[in-house]
Amino acid sequence: MIRKRILVGLLIVFVVIQFFRPARNLSAAVSEYDISKKYPIPENVQAILQKSCNDCHSNNTVYPWYANVQPVAWWLDKHVRDGKRKLNFSEFLRYPLKRQDHKLEETTEQLEDHEMPLWSYLITHGDARLDEAQIRILTNWANSLRPGIQAEMIYEAQAAM
Length: 161
Known about the structure:
Blueprint: H1 2-17, H2 43-52, H3 54-57, H4 72-86, H5 97-112, H6 119-124, H7 132-160
Helix pairs in contact: 2-7, 5-7
């Protein structure tokens, strides 16, 4: 009898929490602050970013079916918010130049150390796993942007004098 009441209580809680959904990370258009508005993104890099990075590091997440089930949606929402807080390609141009440079440096380090994509993301997105060639493509791209950003930082510093 007690087990039945506990199960019914849990079922009621499960049904009720389905009505409390986090906002979706979806944007209708490319932001004016998107990295692509200033820095070139070759097609091969864009394809890798779309498959392995943008769900958590942009303003456009492609949600799997299970994102409609609580508490999974809350867990996914936390991952997306954390990812965007650390690096958001859709808002990249809002960052000061020094931070842009640092974020690209961190990106390269995390890719080379196989820290990205997160293992928890790869559990349900196995196709997002990066092989060595893809890591090299992304790190070469990120590193190719840094000298231009650094030159712009120097120019700004000299103009401020």
